[in-house]
Structure formats: structure tokens, C-alpha cells
Design a protein that fits this description.
This protein is an alpha/beta fold. It is built from five helices and six strands, in the order αβαβββαβαβα. InterPro entries: CoA-bd, NAD(P)-bd_dom_sf.
């Protein structure tokens, strides 16, 4: 992680559009209720999920399909062992500024690759917790 906790508020203020990689159709999963919380707080959220679903979010099946303005801030909900492949996809895109990896998820090597590419990386942090702390 190359972002200090004290930078979280300004990072979120600067990025009001978020692409959520792994946005689940199950409202009981964090990968659904965390994006819903951010949407309810005024962020414009789209999801990436292999199967299309209608749960109040625009869903794309791949990151490449997501409009560029949403790909500046990518919130990742995938198991740690999947992060290298997720990062491969992210690094193929232009314009990614922030990769926020949710609480309980981290992969040092994958994060280092993103950091080397000039991307800000936050890992093992929950958007709900940080939003409530800073706003």
C-alpha cells in the first residue's frame, strides 16, 4: 500500500465514480452492500461481474467494457490469490489512478506491480469504515 491513511479523504473526494470489481448480486455480501453504501453516500458506482445482474448497478462483464471515467478508481472484491490476475487486467488499462483493495484482501507482489506503474494502492481497507471515519 502506497497511500497514507491521512490521504483517504482527499482520495475519495477526488474520485466520485467507482468501478467495483466483483460486485456481487447477493445483498448479504460485502461485495454488494459496500458499493450500495457508497452509492447511497453520493458516489456513482458501476460493477464488474462475469454474469449480468439487475441489482441497482450498471454491470459490465469485463473491466475493458467499463467507461474510462469509472476506471480511474477501481475497488476490488476478489480473494487475495486472484489479485495477480486482477492486476494483470488493471495494468492493461489506461487511466487507472487508484486501486482500492477491500478489507482482508492483499497481495504484496500484485500491489507492487501497480505501484511501479504509478497507481495509488490501498489494500486491506473497507470503504465503509474509511468513509465513516473521514466524512
Amino acid at each position: 500500500m502506497n497511500v497514507k491513511d491521512s490521504e483517504f479523504k482527499s482520495l475519495l473526494q477526488a474520485h466520485k465514480k467507482i468501478a467495483v470489481y466483483g460486485l456481487s448480486p447477493d445483498p448479504g455480501k460485502a461485495s454488494h452492500y459496500v458499493p450500495k453504501y457508497m452509492q447511497d453516500q453520493g458516489w456513482d458506482v458501476v460493477g464488474v461481474y462475469p454474469k449480468l445482474h439487475d441489482t441497482g448497478f450498471k454491470i459490465y462483464q469485463t473491466l475493458k467494457e467499463v467507461p474510462a471515467e469509472y476506471r480511474k478508481f477501481i475497488n476490488v472484491f476478489r480473494r487475495s490469490d486472484h489479485l495477480p490476475e486482477v492486476m494483470d487486467e488493471i495494468l492493461e488499462l489506461d487511466g487507472v489512478e487508484v486501486v482500492w483493495i477491500q478489507l482482508g484482501i492483499e497481495h504484496e507482489e500484485a500491489e507492487a506491480r501497480a505501484e511501479k506503474a504509478g497507481i495509488k494502492v490501498v489494500s486491506n481497507r473497507c470503504l465503509i469504515i474509511e468513509h465513516k471515519k473521514w466524512f
